[in-house]
Amino acid sequence: MTALKKSGNAALDFLTQVSIAQSRTAQIEQMNLLSDHELAERFQINRDQIVTYVFRDKMY
Q1: Entry pTM
Q2: Is residue 1 pLDDT above 80, yes or no?
Q3: Pairwise CA distance, residues 54 & 8, whole Å
Q4: Gyration radius from the chain CA atoms
Q5: Cβ 51 vs Cβ 27: under 8 Å
Q6: DSSP-assigned letters across all residues of the chain
């Protein structure tokens, strides 16, 4: 029973990570649609900093 529970937890963890990655990808795509001026005004970043901004909680 324990092995089955561990497998279920691993599958749930995997699906959670996939969901988070898709969400971040959508955020990157939305930010790429903004103009350089909008990025600077809303987020105080340049276009080349979008990915770093979206993943800032994982990088530091």
Answers
A1: 0.67
A2: no
A3: 29
A4: 17
A5: no
A6: -HHHHHHHHHHHHHHHHHHHHHHHHHHHHHHHTS-HHHHHHHHS--GGGHHHHHTHHHH-
- What is each CA distance from 13 to 21, 50, 56, in whole angstroms? 12, 26, 21
Structure-token pair, residue 34: 């903004």
Measured CA to CA, the distance from residue 20 to residue 8 in angstroms comes to: 18
Say how far apart CA 43 and CA 51 lie, in whole Å.
Answer: 12
The rounded distance, in Å, linking the Cα atoms of 51 and 8 is: 31
pLDDT tens digits for range 16-54: 888 777 889 999 999 999 999 999 999 999 999 999 999
Q: What single letter denotes the amino acid at residue 10?
A: A
